Amino acid sequence: MNFRFLLLCLVLVVQCCNGDANVGKKELENHFGVEEGNLESVESVLLKLKKLAHQRVYGDREFGHDAAEDSKKPVAISVEQPTVAKAVSPYLFEGDIFLSKKQAISILKEASNIPVNSRTRGRGRRSFDSSPESKWPITAPIKYTFHESLDFFAISNIIKAIRYWENVTCLTFENTPGISDTEDHIEFFQGQGCYSMIGRNGGRQGVSIGENCVKEGVIEHEIGHALGMWHQQSRPDAQSYIKVLSDFILPSYVSDFMQRDKDIDTLGIPYDLGSVMHYGGTAFSADQTSKTLVTRDPLYQSTIGQRETLSFFDIETINKAYCPGMDGFL
């Protein structure tokens, strides 16, 4: 009887895990223009990246054991954003970025070329993806839609976040219900947490605004990704302003602090501890309280990870990238 009971429990656990995975996969397929097989490719590449970073930081320590233990724990990039949903976690980079297959392969290639003794160092200047194909055209409004999964409150705050981006940059947005999936546009939907793609990827691309992601600053953060912004602490000059405490990071997530070589423009904008795109001090913390990022100036420790609103330099980044001759606020 005990054996049958244990076997039943095991079956239920496996079904539960598979169910979570299927929910995440279905969500991504439904809200992004994902070609067949690309999800599995992205998941595979991210797993390779995790193993690579883990080996460089922890040597021969077993990755599989750490990954299994870490999967039981909540993960967040800031205390002001909800935890990353397990259903979509295997497909996300740095906690809230859904990479295209091309982006994922490029990042793995860059990481593979970093000398082993560099640990987590070696990334080029990267805060904005300035490749022409990743930028939205400014000759017409950026089109967007609202999925039926969103409630009135979420839609209201998304509109406020969009209006703020419009008020402080040259960008404009247009709600276009019924737009074809093949036309470039953003689809806001209530998914498993908060996440987005980096820049324009073609066709329909989702921005997930989960039920606990409706704070305007969080929405501005995810729109920032969709416009081409990466996380602030990934810049090569970050170590002049922050220290990464790898001893307190969930071991299988150390790749989310890994810096890379590829040169992507910072547009000459200073490092910004107050950026809405910055990790919080306990990002990917093993116990959710120990600090994984410490500011070299302790006065700024409580500033990193803020999700109140865009900073001056967040706005300047987009204005320099999209709006020639414009700096800072309009």
Automatic annotation (TrEMBL):
<keyword id="KW-0732">Signal</keyword>
<dbReference type="InterPro" id="IPR024079">
    <property type="entry name" value="MetalloPept_cat_dom_sf"/>
</dbReference>
<keyword id="KW-1015">Disulfide bond</keyword>
<keyword id="KW-0325">Glycoprotein</keyword>
<feature type="binding site">
    <location>
        <position position="225"/>
    </location>
    <ligand>
        <name>Zn(2+)</name>
    </ligand>
</feature>
<feature type="binding site">
    <location>
        <position position="231"/>
    </location>
    <ligand>
        <name>Zn(2+)</name>
    </ligand>
</feature>
<feature type="domain" description="Peptidase M12A">
    <location>
        <begin position="127"/>
        <end position="324"/>
    </location>
</feature>
<keyword id="KW-0482">Metalloprotease</keyword>
<dbReference type="InterPro" id="IPR001506">
    <property type="entry name" value="Peptidase_M12A"/>
</dbReference>
<feature type="active site">
    <location>
        <position position="222"/>
    </location>
</feature>
<feature type="signal peptide">
    <location>
        <begin position="1"/>
        <end position="19"/>
    </location>
</feature>
<keyword id="KW-0645">Protease</keyword>
<keyword id="KW-0378">Hydrolase</keyword>
<dbReference type="InterPro" id="IPR034035">
    <property type="entry name" value="Astacin-like_dom"/>
</dbReference>
<dbReference type="GO" id="GO:0004222">
    <property type="term" value="F:metalloendopeptidase activity"/>
</dbReference>
<feature type="binding site">
    <location>
        <position position="221"/>
    </location>
    <ligand>
        <name>Zn(2+)</name>
    </ligand>
</feature>
<protein>
    <recommendedName>
        <fullName>Metalloendopeptidase</fullName>
        <ecNumber>3.4.24.-</ecNumber>
    </recommendedName>
</protein>
<keyword id="KW-0862">Zinc</keyword>
<keyword id="KW-0245">EGF-like domain</keyword>
<dbReference type="GO" id="GO:0018996">
    <property type="term" value="P:molting cycle, collagen and cuticulin-based cuticle"/>
</dbReference>
<dbReference type="GO" id="GO:0006508">
    <property type="term" value="P:proteolysis"/>
</dbReference>
<keyword id="KW-0479">Metal-binding</keyword>
<dbReference type="GO" id="GO:0008270">
    <property type="term" value="F:zinc ion binding"/>
</dbReference>
<dbReference type="Pfam" id="PF01400">
    <property type="entry name" value="Astacin"/>
</dbReference>
<dbReference type="InterPro" id="IPR006026">
    <property type="entry name" value="Peptidase_Metallo"/>
</dbReference>
